[in-house]
Amino acid sequence: MTTLQLDRVTKQYGDKTAVNAISLEVRQGEIFGLLGGNGAGKTTTMRMVLGLIYPDAGQILWKGKPYRNELRSQMGYLPEERGLYPKIKVSEQILYLAELRGLSRQEADRNLKRWLDRFRVPEYYDKRVEELSKGNQQKIQFIASVIHDPDILILDEAFSGLDPVNVELLKETVLELRGEGKTILFSSHRMDHVEELCENICILHRSNTVLKGSLREIKQSFPKERVLLETDRPVEGLEQIPGVLAVKRKENGTELRIGSDKAARLILETAMQQAAVNRFQVMEPTLNEIFIKKVGDPHE
């Protein structure tokens, strides 16, 4: 079932086009990746999806119907910017936000304690936000977006400020929410996170859609230009093989850039003539490499 549909949605501010005719569909139980550099139009798109601002053209449909006020209680939004009051206790503001979403005080309190236990920080219940590290503030802000058990989650840079351990914890949580059938629109500067979590993506650049569709199919449509080679002894002459563009020797093997499939076969043949080959792999392009090709700048 398609939960969210954008059909040629456009937003302009004066003579500047912030989003130009974006179309996408997000299914129930899907994490959809919305990507782009600064100023590409991601946040404007998310705000239109949330009903905070209105498109100038096109339409946004939720389960086939336009935006309506009752959707507010079904949505959770994690903005990129910190939005919590630093001098107020965690419990006071999270419970207040939950009540605004329609929960009773008792139900909100149970949910908050459950989430704090889930994130291994039950002691933060009575702490002021300013007493927490940036990473733990992000955890609390995430809790604020899910405290009312929304069906739809809009996550803008959800892992910002988190150390690797907490990134994994939050990724597990997002995947669990997907498993519960939540519809998730996800934005991140970390392409590896998008590759792990998203099945479909849309890349924006200067307000325009430059790439959209299944991540697997997108990767298959780009040439494989990288070979990983591991042998039991050094292999000579790799640089002279026709179609080899670059050779980078590493402690645990060699990475080669190639310009054709034929070059990959010649690399393997050359290696097998000189050594035992422990690993030979023609790598599909990473999402970061694809992004650079389409947009022109690293996205990290």
**In CATH, what is the class of the largest domain?**
Alpha Beta
Give the ordered list of helices and strands. EEEHEEEHHHEHEHEEHEEEHEH
Which architecture of the largest domain would the CATH scheme give at its second level?
Answer: 3-Layer(aba) Sandwich
Structural category: alpha/beta
Supply the number of helical segments: 9
Describe the largest sheet. Answer: 6 strands, mixed
Strand order of the largest sheet: 6-7-8-3-9-10
- Taking all Cα atoms into account, the compactness measure Rg is 23 Å
What is the CATH fold-level name of the largest domain?
Rossmann fold
Query: What's the mean pLDDT score?
Result: 92
How many structurally independent domains?
Answer: 2
Shape: globular
Distance between the termini: 33 Å
Concise structural overview:
The protein has 300 residues and is an alpha/beta fold. The protein has 2 domains: 2-219, Rossmann fold (3-Layer(aba) Sandwich); 223-283, Alpha-Beta Plaits (2-Layer Sandwich), CATH 3.30.70.
What do you see in this structure?
The chain is an alpha/beta fold. It folds into two domains: 218 residues, P-loop containing nucleotide triphosphate hydrolases (Rossmann fold, 3-Layer(aba) Sandwich); 61 residues, Alpha-Beta Plaits. The protein contains nine helices and 14 strands. The strands form three sheets. Strands 6-7-8-3-9-10 form a six-stranded mixed β-sheet, sandwiched between helices. A four-stranded antiparallel β-sheet has the order 2-1-4-5, with helices on one face. The chain has a four-stranded antiparallel β-sheet with strand order 12-13-11-14, with helices on one face. A hairpin with a 2-residue loop joins strand 9 and strand 10. The radius of gyration is 23 Å and the shape is globular.
